[in-house]
Amino acid sequence: MTSTHFFNGRTDNGYGTVLAAVALVLAGTIFYIDTFTKIEGAIAVLYVIALLLLGDILTARGHVTGCVVAVVLAAASYVYAHSDALIDLQSLLRLSVALAALVITTSLLMRNEASRSELIATNAALRESESRYRAIFDRTKVALWERDYSSVREILLSLKAQGVDDIREYARQQPEIVDRCVAAVRTVAANEAAVELLGRNAIDQTPGSLRRILPPGDETFLDLLEAMFQGRRSFSDSVTVVGDDGEKKLVLLTVSFPEDATAFNRVVTGMVDITQRELAQKALQDARAELAASSRTAAIGALSTSLAHELNQPLGAIIVSAQTLVRWLDRDPPDLAAAKRATDRIVRDGERASEIIKQTRSRIEQTQSEPTSVDLVHLVEETCAIMEAEFDGHRVKHKIISSKSVPQVIAMRIELQQVLINLVTNAIQALANSQQANPQVNIEVRPGDGDQVVISVADNGPGIAEDAVDKLFAPFFTTKETGMGIGLSVCKSFVEAIGGRLTARNNASGGAVFELSLPLVGAKKHEPQYA
Question: How far is Cα 234 from Cα 463, in angstroms, rounded to an integer?
Answer without folding.
Answer: 73
